[in-house]
Amino acid sequence: MNMCAGAIFISFDAVPISGIIVEALKVAKRLARKGIKSYLDLGYDIKIDKGKFNKPYDHEQERYKDIFTLVRVDDINCSTL
Predict the structure, then answer these.
(1) Scanning 7, 16, 44, 45, which has its CA 20 to 30 A from the CA of 51?
(2) Residue 43, Ramachandran bin (φ over 0: left; ψ between -120 and 50: alpha; else beta)
(3) What is the tens place of the pLDDT at every residue in 14-48?
């Protein structure tokens, strides 16, 4: 069995910058120092009342590229990690 260390953070408020994301960034930076990759789902497909349902990630990719790989929960599989 091939297992890679990784952490998945999911925001349930569907905004690209929030208190949840700031705290996830702090944890992800500490994990990165240990060689653990971090993934983030911004919750666009979870919280539909923000008007971002099914919206592709655009500038968000650039904002988080150094710490997170942006994913959507539906897209996560063992080859992603």
Answers:
(1) 7
(2) left
(3) 777 888 899 999 999 999 999 999 999 988 877 67
CA distance 61 to 19: 18
In 9-21, which positions are buried (b, 16+ CB within 10 angstroms) versus exposed (e)?
bebeebebeeebb
Q: Are 57 and 42 in contact (CB under 8 A)?
A: yes
pTM above 0.85, yes or no: no
Measure Cα distances from 68 to 21, 32, 50, 57 in Å: 11, 10, 22, 13
18 neighbors 50 (Cβ within 8 angstroms): no
Distances 72 to 17, 22, 51, 60, 69 between C-alpha atoms, Å: 16, 19, 16, 13, 10
Residue type, 48: I
